[in-house]
């Protein structure tokens, strides 16, 4: 009997597998009666766990204590034939419930980070550099440096949830019309079915830029729908929303690993470089701030990128008192 990849079987039960994975699971089920039986048992356990796992207040340790107490009490007296029959049925039910709890603990403890999101909230935090995380439903999340978020996609829940606490992230969301992908900042809610977009939260402002698909942004009951190449700035204090077009593609540097400048003002590129490298770059003369620049810089050495800017615009760049001056 061929064994089935556990992750694929879980995704199939969640109706989140793609067409190839679905076909593979269905063929595995049909090729052997033992496979069919195993699948039905696993399916029954997952369905039976609906009420238990949806209620976060369930104390698993207390449930186990009650189970063992009932078991010990029932075994203290000599059972009749009918009692033995009932006990066998009761034991099957109790064993199944116990298996649900044990399975939940095992999955939470040993599944990859993305798998644990089916049972609890998973914390993600980047520090000095961006990180990319692929989650079990096929969605990819890229966190820029100094970003903190949590996500969960409980297998019996109606949506996939992300809480963006600080920083910025790029989401490439696997489409699932039955389970929307919802991002929550302090007061702003962003809902998508399947799309790619950038979200940044800083202070009282949340910024959303859509690359593909569409995104719904909501605050205080007010909603705005964004299409590709549209940008929305939301003031979380006043609820004011401002829709514009992105002035450049620099917001995506931590995903593409490039700073792409296409005839943008020099000051916009410098601002992004300061954020990316925690640098202190100053433009010495006002007339240089609006100087257009077209170039592509790799997200690598800052000194090399400054050399490219110097040569491209024929400028002087100097270092003094911890500040980098462009003049």
UniProtKB/TrEMBL annotation:
GO terms for molecular function: sigma factor antagonist activity. It holds the Pfam family FecR. Residues 262-326 form the Protein FecR C-terminal domain. It comes from the Bacteria. The chain crosses the membrane at residues 90-110. Residues 127-216 form the FecR protein domain. Keywords: Membrane, Transmembrane, Transmembrane helix. This is FecR family protein. PANTHER family: PERIPLASMIC SIGNAL SENSOR AND SIGMA FACTOR ACTIVATOR FECR-RELATED, PROTEIN FECR. The keyword rRNA processing does not apply.
